[in-house]
Amino acid sequence: xxxxxxxxxxxxxxxxxxxxxxxxxxxxxxxxxxxxxxxxxxxxxxxxxxxxxxxxxxxxxxxxxxxxxxxxxxxxxxxxxxxxxxxxxxxxxxxxxxxxxxxxxxxxxxxxxxxxxxxxxxxxxxxxxxxxxxxxxxxxxxxxxxx
Length: 147
Prior knowledge:
By secondary structure, the chain is an all-alpha fold.
């Protein structure tokens, strides 16, 4: 198998996941599955866990499914599974740890990009309902937030 092709599939999967995260958040989480996502916007619970965490479980199972079914004939399952896993780790670190501080790590990061990501996410969360509220990906944030 060509290593460059494997790496290309991995990187492409990671980038597609950024689009999928944006799309699913905008049209599914703030749409038909708002019932699962709303506790992420409206903190009406005492638990550390949120119903919103079900989305993490879905993508974890998807990643594991690709990894467990991959073999020589279905080699593409490995880079796809690892691409989804890598995006999930990056998303968890940026969204859950850096932005929402579900763990008390990465609190001292302070640069223009970090402030822009936090500002954009804060603007999204000021809307407590499922409508309105700007929506950005984890990696791509408009420059207007980098003040």
